[in-house]
Specification:
single chain, globular, 14% strand, Glycerol-3-phosphate (1)-acyltransferase
């Protein structure tokens, strides 16, 4: 996990991981793990057929991925609410980034292909899942802008909708960091500008009753394993709301900075006022 953002307010101590918490975690994790392993095997089998027949197009696997992620919320007990409508235009979605749970939240709501930093490819556990689900791995360097444009164009021509996190790091879920504009530049290429839309998405986590508001946030140097067990060992679960804002035509904006600023404003506008004051 990146350490480019950390809170000046330390996270609250996790609740005691006592015998009851261990039993709750086991009751949720064991069936979920078996389910995810089975689904990963099925996804790989689907890709064996889908890849030679459809090439870069993936008409089946994203739908399958969405079903798996919706089942994740049922098995974990975390509530999922979807507000607004995912766009049908060609292009990309941009969202705030609070947790590893974002991957499940955004995949459950609509078929998307994530754009991720290259190092995620080698992360234990998450890396293989990312590769299997068609994640686009990139280096966030301006010198590779042309390569990114070509990669995005290939994916968009194949009918894929991309999703990236312009903050560049995850936070505690109480704020929206300034959007980095580098990836927005790719959509201003002549072959993309008039064809694509960008849809801002706000991802809002609500902690379990009585828990700290940042309960689901995963940031700084937090260990994935400890956070995972904290979430699944909770006595009660909270929920997440995925809020889709109206899509924006890239051609309506003069440059990447203007587009990024408007997307940031839309995403920030979907957050409750009492969370915004700390942004």
């Amino acid at each position: 996990m990146t350490t480019t953002w950390d809170s000046t307010e330390p996270p609250a101590p996790p609740p005691p991981f006592d015998t009851r918490a261990k039993l709750r975690a086991a009751r949720r994790i064991l069936p979920l793990a078996l389910f995810l392993i089975l689904c990963l095997v099925l996804l790989l089998l689907v890709r064996l057929i889908e890849a030679p027949l459809c090439g870069a197009r993936r008409p089946v696997s994203p739908v399958f991925q969405g079903l798996v992620c919706r089942a994740f919320f049922r098995l974990s007990g975390i509530g999922l609410k979807i507000t607004g409508t995912p766009m049908r235009h060609a292009g990309a979605l941009v969202a705030n980034h609070s947790s590893w749970l974002d991957i499940f939240s955004l995949s459950a709501a609509a078929p998307v292909f994530f754009v991720s930093k290259a190092e995620v490819r080698s992360w234990p556990g998450i890396g293989p899942l990312a590769r299997a689900t068609g994640t686009v791995f990139i280096n966030r360097k301006r010198g590779e802008a042309r390569a990114q444009q070509e990669m995005f164009l290939e994916r968009l021509r194949a009918g894929q909708r991309l999703l990236f996190f312009p903050e560049g790091t995850s936070t505690d879920g109480k704020r929206v960091l300034p959007f980095k504009t580098t990836l927005f530049a790719a959509f201003f290429a002549p072959e993309l500008r008039d064809l694509t839309h960008i849809q801002p998405v706000s991802v809002l986590y609500r902690a379990p009753e009585g828990a700290e508001p940042r309960f689901y946030g995963w940031w700084g140097d937090m260990e994935f394993g400890a956070h995972f067990l904290k979430v699944f060992g909770a006595r009660r679960q909270g929920g997440v709301e995925v809020i889709y804002h109206p899509p924006l035509a890239v051609s309506d904006f003069p440059d990447r900075k203007a587009l990024a600023a408007e997307c940031e404003a839309r995403v920030r506008g979907g957050m409750p006022w009492d969370w915004q004051k700390n942004s």
